[in-house]
């Protein structure tokens, strides 16, 4: 169990990030039309079969990235709760990886010249990263345990 108020706040913040990661992973499944419309806009000559294939590929990719994010959050939460000395640098690396992945999804253009991922989904993927930034800042501000 976290020993200080700041540790409890950090773990709580990380739990929010975990929840946002799960939500960001589920959202594309709730509105597959958002992805389909985005692919169709970028590639108007694609048949419905090719659009469906692209949507399925995106869903698999987003699910894998989301699952890796969930594992990263759970591992980092455990490390903070257990008071592991390596929790701070590990959380920082996880944040940097998450930020890189989120920005890649948000900014990378595909062969159509448009952003590859539907912008709404790209922005949804940045929400856990912002919470991660807060969690890392809280961790580095808290006094290091002996």
Q: Assembly type of the shown chains?
A: single chain
> How widely separated are the two ends?
16 Å
Structural class per helix/strand content?
mainly alpha
Mean pLDDT: 91
Shape, principal axes of CA atoms: elongated
Main sheet overview: none
As a whole number of angstroms, the C-alpha radius of gyration is 18 Å
Structure explained in plain terms:
With 146 residues, the chain is mainly alpha-helical. It contains five helices and no strands. Helix content is 79%, strand content 0%. The longest helix has 34 residues, at 48-81. The protein is elongated and about 60 Å long. Helix 1 packs antiparallel against helix 5 (119-141) and helix 4 packs antiparallel against helix 5.
Note the topology.
Elements: H1 5-30, H2 32-42, H3 48-81, H4 87-107, H5 119-141
Helix pairs in contact: 1-3, 1-5, 2-3, 3-4, 4-5
Q: Would you kindly provide a brief summary of this structure?
A:
This protein has about 150 residues and is an all-alpha fold. About 80% of the residues lie in helices and about 0% in strands.
């Amino acid at each position: 169990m976290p020993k200080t108020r700041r540790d409890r706040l950090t773990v709580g913040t990380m739990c929010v990030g975990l929840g946002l990661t799960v939500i960001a992973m589920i959202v594309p499944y709730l509105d597959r039309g958002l992805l389909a419309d985005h692919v169709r806009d970028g590639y108007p000559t694609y048949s419905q079969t090719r659009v469906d294939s692209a949507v399925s590929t995106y869903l698999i990719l987003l699910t894998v990235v989301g699952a890796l994010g969930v594992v990263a959050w759970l591992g980092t939460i455990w490390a903070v709760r257990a008071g592991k000395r390596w929790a701070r640098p590990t959380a920082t690396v996880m944040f940097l990886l998450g930020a890189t992945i989120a920005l890649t999804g948000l900014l990378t253009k595909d062969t159509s010249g448009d952003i590859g991922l539907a912008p709404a989904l790209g922005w949804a993927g940045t929400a856990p990263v912002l919470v991660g930034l807060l969690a890392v800042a809280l961790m580095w501000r808290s006094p290091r345990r002996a």
